[in-house]
Amino acid sequence: MKFPVRPFRALKLNASGRWSLLALLVGLAVGVASIAFEWTTQAVRRYTRGEFAGYPPEGSIGEHQFFDSANLAFSPWMVVVVITLGGLVSGLLVHWFAPEASGAGTDAAVDAFHNRKGMVNARVPWVKTIASAVTLGTGGSGGREGPIAQIGAGIGSTIADRFHLSSTDRRIMLAAGVGAGVGAMFRAPLAGAIFAAEILYSDADMEADVIVPSAIASIVAYSVYTRSISPEVRFQPIFGNDLAHTLDSPIELLPYTLLAIILMFMAAFYVRFFHATQKLFEAAPLWPHLRPALGALVAGLVGISLFVYSGHNAEILGVLGTGYGTLQHALNGDSGLTIGILATVAVVKMLTTSLSIGSGGSGGVFGPLMVIGGCAGAAFGQAAHAMFPEWVPYPEAYAVVGMAGFFSGVARAPISTIILIRELTGDFGLLVPTMLVCAITFVFSSKWILYTHQVASRLESPAHRGDFLVDVLEGLAVKDVYLKGRRLLMIHEGETLDEIVHRLAETNQHYFPVVDSNDAMVGLFSADDVRAYLYDETLWRLANARDVMISEFYRVSPDDDLNTAMQQFTTLNVDELPVVDPENPTKLLGFLGRKETIAAYNRRILEHRRETEQDV
């Protein structure tokens, strides 16, 4: 059953009021969906890993736990069994019900925005919720950002369809759903709104139209989601209130710059490795629903082998699951985390995430990226502190900056990342070094894009193809394009149809101006107009040019912009328009062709791309 559009019309809402109401609906739905997703994930974790492997729930200080821990002895190798079965179940769900729900959900939402007119199958939110909860709950190395982004996108798209909105409006609703999901799940409403507008593009561009609807939806979803959280942590950052660092001297920016360079190389390696793993699994001679199980099996074996080899060091288990527990300890600067352990988690987390998600498992990559960057930053901070203690007074601060810098370079979203890390940690004292590191990794990691469906800017987006046609054509004038000096066949108004037919047989011209004895243009007709008389020879000597022509026709002047001309080409469905002298509208200067107009647009676009490449 579809909701009617009439309620909006009856209320006679303006654009802002309409979008506020629609964003409110999206926020409410996504807030409830976020609660369902988190509860389901924790339920799967409690009754699979907890029940059969005695795996304690990992998490950060500010995360709410819906279930108590299972008081069982930890069985490492049972974790491998559970994670493999989780991969199998997730693969079967996705394969049977919604294949587009596989992998990282954020990229699927970006693809729907640019290439699918904002359309997402209504089954995706349900399948993504269950499949991702199974993947993450059983120990797959992934994050919650991707699933909730795709869930929110699906909800936004579905609501847009229920109200019969246009494809443009559907895209905005989709993006609002993405922002609402991220804002609720990470309890970061401002970052969610900016993330939805920024993640669509790989260059420094943003979808401005979605910011306000996304902000409203994000606030509402955040408000709904936090009602499910215990009051003790409800309004606390996910990684607690105790993180407070300062920048004591500009000289401290030097080691942060070095950290940015290291994160750049890590970003390049990770993106290439992740995509190579995806291609490897796609080429594997296996049924699609078995690939996530194989990826989960190998990831589980790697994680548990490291755990055993390290002497049962629990921090190593951060390479599985979300890894937030290990990241929390790194942010707090716990002494039990050595440089070796931190570096190992950072490197191996790249492998386990690529196996868990690159194999087709349903999950996100945001959480793993934070763990990788945070642990790498913490390891660097400890090493730099040992060598230059006066330059690096707070080694754990590099974990905060590393989280932001790595994600900024890989996901191409520096502004929302800076805001998000502030909302996740509550640490505003590191704003300057975070901005520095994010800017460096963003600028110098442009060749390595994790979300393959991102486009460089709105100019390259299919969603804005028509918009930029207008913008480009408005910068060109008719005089720059129309053919001057072209010899035209003029038809005198008194010529008979018989004479006209014989003259048309000797030319390829399609549109013919009709002139009077003073060569003033009085009308216009096309070859198609003449063909209507060809089957009635009795009219050939009776009818003349005035009978065939039209006297009221659209004309352009040399100074008109091509956007005006293109609108007439489309409205009138003609291929040529007469160009006249603006001071004497009866004086014909030539014809402007639709093909020449489109060719001028293509040349301007090519010039713009060349200028952009030169600037880069």
From TrEMBL:
Keywords: CBS domain, Chloride, Chloride channel, Ion channel, Ion transport, Membrane, Transmembrane, Transmembrane helix, Transport. It is found in: Membrane. It is a multi-pass membrane protein. Gene3D superfamilies: CBS-domain, Clc chloride channel. CDD domains: Voltage_gated_ClC. It comes from the Bacteria. It holds the Pfam family CBS. Residues 482-542, 549-607 form the CBS domain. The keyword Metal-binding does not apply. Its main location: membrane. The chain crosses the membrane at residues 77-98, 172-197, 253-271, 292-310, 330-351, 363-385, 397-421, 428-451. PANTHER family: CHLORIDE CHANNEL PROTEIN CLC-E. This is Voltage-gated ClC-type chloride channel ClcB. The lineage of its organism: Bacteria, Pseudomonadati, Planctomycetota, Planctomycetia, Pirellulales.
